[in-house]
């Protein structure tokens, strides 16, 4: 199973490392033609405006939309989630082009600037049900977006509760604050819609590979069962004995 990782900018190396730990071939996708050789695609976190400009320069958007319409799994993390949304708010002047397809409204930089990045525990019962392990995971939010609205065809996999007394220091503008109040202080941070997976946080920056395994199994659920993608609980699996990943990861103890 060849999994593409859009490698224009952002944390594509970290996703490649997570795939290696699962014994899966990762392909750095830098040209539209390379999408023809992969079975699934990860759009990593990064700077969404920069990624959009690079994607436009390389004429990626038509090929990305065609890839999504084929039904092959696509996963967007952080900036990648913004790319996949049908609508994005809180953008820079002039906005940016989106791939679309995910029936959500995403607020760019919802949680504030780079220095307001944070880590927290998220409750993920559906992930645990399929992949095993605890029903909580570590969420790494770096200048992160959030999903303000999700359509009826979108399955919510994780949300984050913001104390109302901290609302003004967390949400970045009046529109975002109003959306939180209307949803009892919760914002959505992980969703699935058919072949599309979206997370506002960065699973690739932790030692927990269950999100990557969950994504790989989405391909099998399309009826293509000629490969097996198993959830791995040991972070050393997939590496020679005594070695560890060559990229920094966060481990919560």
UniProtKB/TrEMBL annotation:
Pfam family, one: SNO
Protein's recorded name: glutaminase
Family matches, as InterPro entries: Class_I_gatase-like, PdxT/SNO, PdxT/SNO_CS
UniProt EC number: 3.5.1.2
Xref: SUPFAM superfamilies: Class I glutamine amidotransferase-like (SSF52317)
CDD domains from the UniProt entry: GATase1_PB (cd01749)
Active-site residues (renumbered): 78, 202, 204
Binding site for L-glutamine: 46-48, 108, 142-143
GO biological process, one term: pyridoxal phosphate biosynthetic process
Cytoplasm among keywords: no
GO terms of molecular function: glutaminase activity; lyase activity
Organism: Vanilla planifolia
Example of a GO cellular component annotation carried by this entry: cytosol
Record PANTHER family: PYRIDOXAL 5'-PHOSPHATE SYNTHASE SUBUNIT SNO, PYRIDOXAL 5'-PHOSPHATE SYNTHASE SUBUNIT SNO1-RELATED
Reactions the enzyme catalyzes: L-glutamine + H2O = L-glutamate + NH4(+)
Lineage: Eukaryota, Viridiplantae, Streptophyta, Embryophyta, Tracheophyta
Family per record: Belongs to the glutaminase PdxT/SNO family.
Keywords carried by this UniProt record: Glutamine amidotransferase, Hydrolase, Lyase
């Amino acid at each position: 199973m060849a999994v593409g990782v859009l490698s224009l900018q952002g944390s594509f190396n970290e996703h490649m490392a997570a795939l290696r730990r699962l014994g899966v071939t990762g392909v750095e996708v830098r040209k539209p033609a390379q999408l023809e050789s992969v079975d699934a695609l990860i759009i990593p976190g990064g700077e969404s405006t920069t990624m959009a400009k690079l994607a436009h320069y390389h004429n990626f958007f038509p090929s990305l939309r065609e890839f999504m319409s084929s039904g092959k799994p696509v996963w967007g993390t952080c900036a990648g989630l913004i790319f996949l949304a049908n609508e994005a708010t809180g953008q820079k002047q002039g906005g940016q082009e989106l791939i679309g397809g995910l029936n959500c409204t995403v607020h760019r930089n919802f949680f504030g600037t780079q220095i307001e990045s944070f880590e927290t525990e998220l409750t993920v019962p559906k992930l645990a049900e399929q992949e095993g392990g605890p029903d909580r995971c570590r969420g790494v939010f770096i200048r992160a977006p959030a999903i303000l609205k999700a359509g009826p065809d979108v399955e919510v996999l994780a949300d984050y509760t913001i104390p109302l007394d901290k609302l003004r220091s967390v949400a970045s503008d009046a529109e975002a604050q109003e959306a939180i109040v209307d949803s009892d202080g919760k914002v959505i941070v992980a969703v699935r819609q058919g072949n599309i997976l979206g997370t506002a946080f960065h699973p690739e920056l932790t030692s927990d590979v269950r999100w990557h395994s969950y994504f790989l199994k989405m391909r099998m659920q399309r009826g293509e069962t000629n490969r097996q993608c198993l959830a791995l609980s040991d972070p050393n699996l997939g590496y020679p004995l005594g070695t560890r990943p060559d990229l920094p990861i966060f481990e919560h103890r």
